[in-house]
Amino acid sequence: MLSTKTFVRIQKEAENILGDGAAVIFYEAGKKAVQVSVKRIEEEWKLEGIELVRCLEEFYAEVGFGRFTIGEAKAEGELVIKVENSFIAREYGKSDVPVCHFLRGYCAGIGERFSGREMDAEELKCVACGDEHCEFLVKTVE
Ligand SMILES: [Zn+2]
């Protein structure tokens, strides 16, 4: 496993070289990575629905990604996911813009898994910007 420090160093290098494009790469990588872990938990532990959600939350906290709170799905096809102690924001330092692109991809992937539809995620709050926790709005792609 990559250390948090190394991960964030790679992200900052990518941002220096690629600018805004770096965010897209980390977002897409997160979206793919989460599908792998969700599938593994489903198959190994035979969980679904709310049990799967709680298990994912525990799993990500345990691996040190942060404490996820996956909110109830809203009627309009929106989902709010709160992440406390994001490993990216923790290491990144201060920023004018949200920095947890990899976890944003995770949130979109989680939304897609539970809705069965294509979803996108936006980071509304980020610890790197001075917020108390990171918060993601996951929405159906129109
Ligand atoms: Zn963040």
What can you see in these coordinates?
The chain has a single domain (4-140), classed as Trafficking protein particle complex subunit 3 (Muramoyl-pentapeptide Carboxypeptidase, domain 2, 2-Layer Sandwich), CATH 3.30.1380. The protein has helices at 4-18, 21-45, 49-62, 87-92, 101-115; strands at residues 67-70, 78-84, 119-125, 134-140. Helices cover 53% and strands 18% of the residues. The relative contact order is 0.17. With 142 residues, the protein is an alpha+beta fold. Helix 1 (4-18) runs antiparallel to helix 2 and helix 2 crosses helix 5 (101-115). The chain has 5 helices and 4 strands. Zinc ion binds at residues 86, 89, 98-100, 123, 126-128, 134.
Characteristic terms for this protein:
Muramoyl-pentapeptide Carboxypeptidase, domain 2; single chain; four-stranded antiparallel beta sheet; binds zinc ion; 5 helices; 142 residues; alpha+beta
Topology:
Elements: H1 4-18, H2 21-45, H3 49-62, E1 67-70, E2 78-84, H4 87-92, H5 101-115, E3 119-125, E4 134-140
The structure holds zinc ion.
Describe the structure in brief.
By secondary structure, this protein is α+β, with helices and mostly antiparallel strands. It has helices at 4-18, 21-45, 49-62, 87-92, 101-115; strands at 67-70, 78-84, 119-125, 134-140.
Quaternary structure of the protein:
single chain
Determine the number of helices (DSSP H or I, runs of at least 4 residues): 5
Name the helicity range. Answer: 40-55%
User: Biggest sheet: strands, sense, closure?
Assistant: 4 strands, antiparallel
Residues in β-strands, percent: 15-25%
How many domains in all?
1
Ligands bound here? Answer: zinc ion
What is the β-strand count?
4
Radius of gyration, in Å, reads 14 Å
Return the string of H and E elements. HHHEEHHEE
CATH topology: Muramoyl-pentapeptide Carboxypeptidase, domain 2
Top CATH class: Alpha Beta
Shape: globular
